[in-house]
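Section 3.1: Structural characterization of target chains.
Under the original work plan, the team committed to producing a structural model for every single-chain target entering the pipeline before any wet-lab resources were allocated. The record below documents one such target. The sequence was received from the expression subgroup and is listed exactly as submitted; it comprises 275 residues.
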Amino acid sequence: MATTLTKKKQEHLKMKYGPMALVTGATSGIGLAIAQQLAQCGLDLVITARTTSALDRLKNQLESTHGITVIALTADLSNEQSTDAFIKSIHAYHIGLAVLCAGYGTSGLFMQSKLDEEVNMLRLNCEAVLKLSHYFTKVFHAWKKGGIIFFSSIVAYQGVPHAAHYAATKAYIQSLGEALAIELKPYDVDVLVAAPGPVKTGFEQRANLQMNGAMLPETIAVPVLKALGKKSSVWPGFLSKLLIGSLHTLPRFLKIRIMQKIMGGMTKHQRTTAF
């Protein structure tokens, strides 16, 4: 699978969505891979994450390698005040593409989860995305151009025991993105929802999952950017295509049972006899 865009696609992305793109969650995983690809296209970037030192390192690397301008803004998008302040700060920049990568997951039995962590995930995965996409839909509607990329997941298409709340947050993103793709199409605004399978991003450590066959972020970034402007949804990677495609025609209760088995295997090491 290609890990770089063609020169023609790079030029197209810069021309259609330039001069500047925003990438949230830019210092690791898919966000980092997307930021690197967009920098290769010659787009100036606004990047955000929680850690200033990591942002500064990435800023310096992208600017020195690609000769672009990078604005690094530290923000905790799981915090309401920080998110609001961040949105105000980006008013000054001509951002034509918003790539909303920031997010994380939890796993295990919902009744054993820590409520504050689940609320924190909801704020990052959903509330911050809601506020950012609401801001950009207004901007892009006025400009009659622009693009938004959402990141859903293969778990978004049905309930998923052992990852109940995480799957619910991704179902929210999938539904929101699909609807906005239709609403914004008359204004020449492209909306894409990407639903990858397991990816080696550090996600599995934070979610306490044991994953096999996970893909590299670089192999996700390219097909996502290729799909922008052509599709409203994309399933990047073989595993996501296999799972979503094979489950597509099954009754919903069977999808849930199958995902229970898959996620149950990934969380088997968490089992206790407490419940």
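The two ends are 44 Å apart (CA to CA).
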